[in-house]
Amino acid sequence: MALVTTKEMFDKAYAEGYAVGAFNVDSVDIMQGVIDGAVRAQSPVILAVSGRMLDDVPYIVQACKLAAHDNAIPVALHLDHGKSVKLCKRCVDAGFTSVMIDASLYDFDTNVRLTREVVDYAHSCGVVVESELGVVSGKEEDIVVAGKYGQFTRPSDVVEFVSSTGLDSLAIAIGTCHGAYKYKAGEQPYLRFDILDEIADKLPNFPLVLHGASSIPKERLDIFNCYGGKLPQAIGIPEDMLRQAAAKAVCKINVASDLRICYFGELRRQFALKPNKWDAKEFFLPARQAVADLVYDRLVNVMGSANKA
Ligand code: G3H
Ligand code: ZN
């Protein structure tokens, strides 16, 4: 089927208490693995493309459209972390069905203004918009926000932000973090479910988004590290916490690091196991298969979106 927006996906996810997985597709191979896993799970899926990828691999957008067209599950094509209004508009024009304007590092009023500008443009083209309030650490961790809620999203801000921007989904900061190191060794993993609940109470039926939500599965990390990768003691968000968030108002869960560890770990293993091979399919097909298996597992056991296509 043709690409769809996330509107119906989120309405159904909210009503039935699960989340839709948004997977960052950094290559056509990874994208095919994501689609394979979603088709096997009969799940809706969001293909997330970062702005950087658009310059490096412009054909990935066409490949995503083709993949959606060839399969019977709902697929949305989403710009992840759009850093400028210009980029968001470019993606709307290119056929994305969802864009994220990431203006969360600006002050509140600027964030509202930039988000509103993207919303006005995107909505006039039938495209939905996500924006972020608060600071999801990792890439953004230099920013220090003081006060009771620290760098987390302030529940007192959300109603004004949603009503003055008209956005379609809100990314919130409740303790998730971008990258492979979300907690220090020995630190007790936590998410601020109290903040999530407060926000959900203030925004009934409104879809919330979790960034930085990879769980860094041990078996995949072990393969990555065993075959020459160096991500010692990487720690992700515990899966039961993601399930808990999905059962609440979180309708979209973003996963990028898990896919990277999975794909490149499997490639490393295949290179090590097959030193006398040089046929691309010997290496890239198993890596794509590993991505499909991981995505299937996430959709069935973490997002809860299997058979919701
Ligand atoms: O926007 C992408 C996701 O927030 C990536 O998060 O590093 O936990 O996979 P992750
Ligand atoms: Zn993110």
Please give a structural write-up.
There is one protein chain. With 309 residues, this protein is of the alpha/beta class. It is 48% helix and 14% strand. The chain is built from 12 helices and 8 strands. The protein has helices at residues 7-16, 28-41, 51-56, 59-69, 85-94, 108-124, 155-165, 193-202, 218-226, 239-247, 257-273, 280-303, and strands spanning 20-24, 45-50, 75-82, 98-101, 128-133, 169-172, 208-210, 250-255. The chain has an 8-stranded parallel barrel, surrounded by 9 helices. Helix 2 (28-41) links the parallel strand 1 (20-24) and strand 2. Helix 2 (28-41) packs parallel to helix 4 (59-69) and helix 5 (85-94) packs parallel to helix 6. It is globular. The relative contact order is 0.17. Zinc ion binds next to loops. Glyceraldehyde-3-phosphate (G3H) is lined by residues 24, 80-81, 178-179, 211-214, 254-258.
Fill in the keyword field for this structure.
globular; alpha/beta; binds zinc ion; 309 residues; eight-stranded parallel β-barrel; binds glyceraldehyde-3-phosphate
Helix count? 12
Shape: globular
Stretches where pLDDT is under 50 for at least 5 consecutive residues are: none
Present as ligands are: glyceraldehyde-3-phosphate, zinc ion
Largest sheet: 8 strands, parallel, barrel
- Give the integer mean of the pLDDT values: 94
